[in-house]
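Protein folding task:
====================
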Amino acid sequence: MKKTTGMDRAATRNWRPATRAVRGGTWRSEHGETSEALFLSSGFTYDNAASVAARFSGDEEGMTYSRLQNPTVAMLEERIALMEGAEACRTQASGMAAMTAALLCQLSAGDHVVAARAAFGSCRWLVDHLCPRFGIEATVIDAAVNEEWDRAIRPNTKVFFFETPANPTLDVVDLQYVCDLARAHGIVTVVDNAFASPVLQRPLEFGADVVAYSATKLMDGQGRVLAGAVCGSQDFIDNVLLPFQRNTGPNLSPFSAWVVHKGLETLDLRARAQSVSSAELGRFIEPRVARMLHPGLPSHPRNELATRQMPNGTGPIFAFEVPGGREQAFALLDALGLIDISNNIGDTRSLLCHPASTTHASMSEEAREAMGVTEGLLRINVGLEDIDDLKEDIDRALAKAGL
């Protein structure tokens, strides 16, 4: 293939984010196609036996097997790395595959990880259940309290793991503080940036070491495929993550990679537009509910920090609490006409869910309460529909639920 754009880092260094999202990682064959090609192939052929040996030894560039490299997947990885400002990226089969790989590739028995209390239910399962099974100690803290990071450090602490904004309570972590603290102690920071995407927040600019994604969310953004990604230095990706990934196999399919690759072309437009609608809908709902959790609104305890870390918008997702617990929350959901009941996020469609009975149902009631996932908490993803239609739908639902 002719690698016509995105391969020369010097040529792309001055491109702005929106341009990188459309032009980065574009390889063209001899046919000169405008849209990136889809390579549905598990294996590759070689001109001679010596070429095979050279590729497997790393002395010659080229594809060997789609669990290790695939042209379509490689294009996506290059584009995400350019957008993130990372040296390298490896994609995975899902967001949770990315989170699991980002942790287990660098943790061993006897190590210690400090993780945020507010997190997606499956991410909490990793640190609460999976890590201890392999002799990896874990401490869960309130990540919004800077001092708790200091207090949690042990001599064997190897990783800080957190989301910002967090799922589903929208806790915001002080990236600069936590990354500086980690760097001072030789600790690797792994940041789940799925709620923001590189359009709205780039953790590497604050000193993060590794950024992980559910690319299913904003990157695809249209509810079509599952995908994950891990970004970091070339050394981390090649020498820490890749040995784990190539031997355990959580690889992204070429078709899913192609879909996400096309989704990235409109990510900048979608993320900004959805952030604007999210803030407007949040302001509309806030006077009628018991608690609003929106990092873009002044009522959020870390609004100033959130808007500083996310200058292009605070994302399409927020949460709010109704006073009547699960019964009232379900009544509101059942009264929706336009907005769908769904546990996905980052979609172009507006989606509303009840985390305590869906995304965080596998956690104990005590763990949910400690995180702030109450029976009355609802999480919304604001899509690209007309904001007035969304207001009308949520207004009717709130009224029918007695709010």
User: Anything to note?
Assistant: The chain has a mean pLDDT of 95. The domain at 267-400 is CATH 3.90.1150.10 (Aspartate Aminotransferase, domain 1). The chain is about 40% helix and 15% strand.
